[in-house]
Hints:
Elements: H1 3-27, E1 35-36, E2 42-43, H2 45-61, E3 66-69, E4 73-75, E5 80-88, H3 90-94, E6 101-108, E7 111-119, E8 124-129, E9 132-135, E10 138-139, E11 152-155, H4 163-175, E12 178-181, H5 185-192, E13 198-201, H6 206-209, H7 212-218, E14 222-224, E15 239-242, H8 245-256
Parallel strand pairs: 3-5, 11-12, 11-13
Antiparallel strand pairs: 1-2, 3-4, 5-6, 6-7, 7-8, 8-9, 9-10, 13-15, 14-15
Helix pairs in contact: 1-2, 4-8, 5-7
Amino acid sequence: xxxxxxxxxxxxxxxxxxxxxxxxxxxxxxxxxxxxxxxxxxxxxxxxxxxxxxxxxxxxxxxxxxxxxxxxxxxxxxxxxxxxxxxxxxxxxxxxxxxxxxxxxxxxxxxxxxxxxxxxxxxxxxxxxxxxxxxxxxxxxxxxxxxxxxxxxxxxxxxxxxxxxxxxxxxxxxxxxxxxxxxxxxxxxxxxxxxxxxxxxxxxxxxxxxxxxxxxxxxxxxxxxxxxxxxxxxxxxxxxxxxxxxxxxxxxxxxxxxx
Length: 259
């Protein structure tokens, strides 16, 4: 893996994101049929159309690479795998909330390599690869927050937490300076750009976080599972993202204390 390889992949990912923006926006705030999947999460025609377009373009340009998408599963390939979420934040999308996004990642041997967050409604985009993250054309950098008590905390929804996970969520979020809910992938972009400091989530799938890891880490932040282990395709979906290493360590200690 090299920086040049990452730039080739990210350049193509940006082309893809630009291409499917119009698909997302053409269905946004329209009368949509919403189907409940087996896991009870919603899906729309927009999710399926976008993923189909992405898969076709990736298979044409990089036929030896694998593809892992939210709606259509896994196609095996070589050591590189494209991981795509056509609409991250489908619940936001179907309720007219504009901060949904398209996530495109490339993994190498199941580990995050480079990734992109694209927000169609605002035309904002974050990219990440080893040692560097960008917001638009500018470098993205996390804040220097080092204490949970000073942190601006986000999660998509408190409803994702159950049992002991809910207890950990309450302990961490109530210890932060402020907490906010909602945003899906957008809040990770905010963290990469220094506007929030701490995110805790659970129940995520690889297509929810694999594009985000290189962005948070490339911006100087830390993103692991709840045990401090690196995230991969095989992770459990418990995710903690922090602006600094010091903040991350304190957050990990807090969610595991007296449990």
